[in-house]
Design goal:
The protein contains no helices and eleven strands. By secondary structure, the chain is mostly beta strands. Strands 2, 4, 5, 6, 9, 10 and 11 form a seven-stranded mixed sheet that branches. Strands 1-3-8-7 form a four-stranded antiparallel sheet, with no helix packed on it.
Amino acid sequence: QVQLVESGGDSVQAGGSLRLSCATSADTHSNTCMAWFRQAPEKEREGVATIDADGNMNYADSVKGRFTIAKDNNKNTLYLQMNALKPDDTAMYYCALEFAGHCPPYRGGWRPGGFFSFWGQGTQVTVSS
């Protein structure tokens, strides 16, 4: 079974930065789509960014220019560098993985159900003003 373990969540001031990590038991160099999702209270879980096996990256409109998704295939670890954090970024952040050659298209948003087979337990990010 593939396991994902997130870390790096913290409480920060608006404008600050955090780097989230997701350690996986899977080979991230294989045909995988990996992603970061987040879920704020009373809201649906939403996709933040995706990266495929070739390193192609896509971002939700709300985080473009501020967040960067990356992976280290030697460490089988996924990262999310978050800069210029806003209070609206406050959420539980989850990493997800699917064995697929390509990630799903954005088309205005990514839904957590149906595509990704493996999920971590989440790490909390809180941004105060």
